[in-house]
């Protein structure tokens, strides 16, 4: 689990006693097995002591991930109805004293002489002890027994005795807490944190993780200041002069642009225009779509003479179809980082923020995480384009959430009425990094490809109410014979 090692700033300290705690189903056994399998791969002796599951259950759990437990000594303490012909040593906890159980455990460790040990789980030991005093005394004795034997030990606890054992925390060297959050709809979200790691530096806070076939994927939370680079120079052009002029020359590198407007106004098409212009210049770009499939986007892009599908197939454009009900915020940030750090993506599009905000109900926390992500992308010199769909199509449209403070440039698109037709207008509200046009221009996608017309001087109500154009027809695209710029 290299990403967990990143959080731990190098990994679990060797020859220490660590606790992994979490409710049933949080992923404790899977993480413990992955820990031992890594030891086997390193040529170390590994021992798994189980009081809660049989060997058959452990083997089946490992097989579901495509893992083999060959090389791991499995020592089970099982109920009387277990298979007596099993090759592992069998003990009946219900019929034995707690101290005898602990002596059996230490004897097995002494006989195996392992480098790594997992004890699963402390809940059964608490039931055997029936009293906190002998329970703590025996665990302290286990800790002293392990000292000097060069063994890295993980204790598993399912927290059936409560939310946490403060006394137990004081005995161990490190504590890894796991949590599983059930959503009202969609996949459960798993996350972890390092509650304690004595004498070690580690990254605090919660980190999302996922259990997938064959692997435990950990997504370290992002610290933007650790990725600061020299300021990026230059701007990215769309290849459409009128659009670039409106934005004062294009989108500056290391900045965030938010495209705001009602559904169907052309936000995604503008983002695609900049993406494909960058791809055409040999740069890598990535498009994260929460709302639209690649097939529908490709058909629209083809009508705009933008070869999206071929760019994706050639690997020049990264495409992610993200499901808000299945994706955790940490996993999304990690996907962005891999495209930027591994594939050198220079443009990142998130379409749309409305769906992205649906990945987590704690909106304030998600906005803080988004702020950290945008700061990171700015430090990396990436052009970030965010798409925010407003509520409503015509009339008094409203923003579902105000995120303008997170962006360096704000572009607004609106529908307006002129000459008996529904048309589109585009304007730039702000640009922190330079001068931009204050004019409002007509914007059109079809039938002649993307076009931006001259300034509309007689347009009223673009910011409030229902925009209406009351001027002459010459400035309008397709009416006065004006060519798009």
TrEMBL record:
Domain KaiC: 1-232, 234-466
UniProt KW keywords: Hydrolase, Kinase, Phosphoprotein, Repeat, Transferase
Pfam families membership: ATPase
EC number: 2.7.11.1
SUPFAM superfamilies registered for this protein in UniProt: P-loop containing nucleoside triphosphate hydrolases
Entries under PANTHER family matching the protein: CIRCADIAN CLOCK OSCILLATOR PROTEIN KAIC 1 (PTHR42926:SF1), PTHR42926
Protein name (database record): non-specific serine/threonine protein kinase
Organism: Belnapia mucosa
